[in-house]
Amino acid sequence: MLLPTLFIIVVSLLLGTSDSRLTLDYYAKTCPQFSQIIQDTITNKQIASPTTAGATIRLFLHDCLANGCDGSILISSTPFNKAERDNDINLSLPGDGFDVIVRAKTALELACPNTVSCADILAVATRDLVTMAGGPYYHVYLGRRDSRVSKSSDIDGNLPKPTMPMSQIIEIFEKRGFSIEEMVALTGAHTIGFSHCNQISKDLYNYSKFSEYDPQYNPRYAQGLQKACSDYQKNPTLSVFNDVMTPNKFDNVYFQNLPKGLGVLKSDRGLFGDPRTRPFVEKFAADESKFFQAFASAMQKLSLVGIQTGRRGEIRHRCDQIN
User: Fold this and answer.
1) For 118-130, b where at least 16 C-beta lie within 10 A, e where not — what string?
2) Pairwise CA distance, residues 291 & 182, whole Å
3) Is pTM beyond 0.90 here?
4) Quick count: other Cβ atoms within 10 Å of Cβ 260?
5) pLDDT band, residue 12 (cuts 50/70/90)
6) Are 36 and 172 members of one domain?
7) I need a surface site. Which of 17, 68, 175, 238 has the fewest CB within 10 A?
8) pLDDT category, 19, cuts 50, 70, 90?
9) CB pairs under 8 A, 24+ apart, for 100-106?
10) Secondary structure class of 223 (helix, strand, coil)
């Protein structure tokens, strides 16, 4: 993990010295309750709905990888604009992620009106939920502004899909400045959370004339998934855990599952099947501390992608609409 002083230099280089307003204590004077309010909100929500951590991490990734960490994923569509969240790839984002951000924003607006951006709330809530689930702590620099734009058309080609070949997924991360190791580490977020059955139905039923299901699956696991997902056509919300062993604990078991054929998504199984990504799967499976270190560093880096500061954005009154 980068040291705070070194990281400030990195922030300055990324933003340009005239616009580098991100600091660890950005709200110390304007909203001293900031950290406690977020901590209380995410704790209550995670206890009530244990899938919140996985949902929020996914929301954060989908926000940052598309147009940068600007909270644009949170904006609702209008009759005149189809927003990012209504793009096909984002329709499966769980509601718990959106809900916890709305709750935190509501509490913060009561305590410190017009002060805290939705983008900062999402970044810190994600970090705190990762830590609460047993994952690593990492510094989140604050001072982001919220985007005034959210267009569904901006998503296409910027987010990885489970059905994509590994080369395409690697390319998406590389154009955002991430190495293959960083990409594999970020994918380790699948250690918590779930996937909808309709995302894997083609891998489970009538896969080919030679096999009913994708042969990369462990056979017993595939049969279990078939049973769990049997009503997916009638119930589109039906889902399965990404990590069948420790679904609510942030650990390295996700990587240990992949060589055993226990990856839910095609892209999960592809990580072990591709010679470019397999060494990192094996590295993280063997040593949880190395995974945690790589994940924390990659998340810290991701949290700075495409951010808006100063007059380039706004502090939204509500996270789901532009002021």
Assistant:
1) bbbbbbbbbbbbb
2) 10
3) yes
4) 12
5) very low
6) no
7) 17
8) very low
9) 100/41, 100/42, 100/45, 100/46, 100/52, 100/55, 100/56, 100/125, 100/129, 101/56, 101/59, 101/74, 101/125, 101/319, 102/319, 102/320, 103/41, 103/45, 104/37, 104/38, 104/41, 104/42, 105/318, 105/319
10) helix
| Domain membership of residue 20 as a residue range | 4-159+303-312
Closest CA relative to residue 269, chosen from 210, 209, 225? 225
Active site residues: 62
pLDDT digits (tens, 9 = 90+) for 179-238: 999 999 999 999 999 999 999 999 999 888 778 889 999 999 999 999 999 999 999 889
pLDDT of amino acid 9 = 46
Helix, strand or coil, per DSSP, at residue 23: strand
User: Is 210 inside any structural domain?
Assistant: yes
Amino acid at 215: P
- Same domain as 182, residue 124: no
How many Å apart are CA 75 and CA 151, to the nearest integer?
9
Q: Are residues 140 and 197 in the same domain?
A: no
What pLDDT, on the 0 to 100 scale, is given for residue 211? 85
Q: Are residues 92 and 175 in the same domain?
A: no
Identify the CA nearest to 192 among candidates 112, 114, 254: 254
Give which of 245, 277, 280 is closest to 260, Cα–Cα.
245
**Are residues 108 and 188 both part of a single domain?**
no
What does the pLDDT read at residue 208?
A: 85
Residue 319 domain flag = no
Q: Share the mean pLDDT of the chain.
A: 92
pLDDT at 8: 47
Cα 159 off chain centre by: 11
Q: Is residue 294 assigned to a domain?
A: yes
pLDDT of 103 = 98
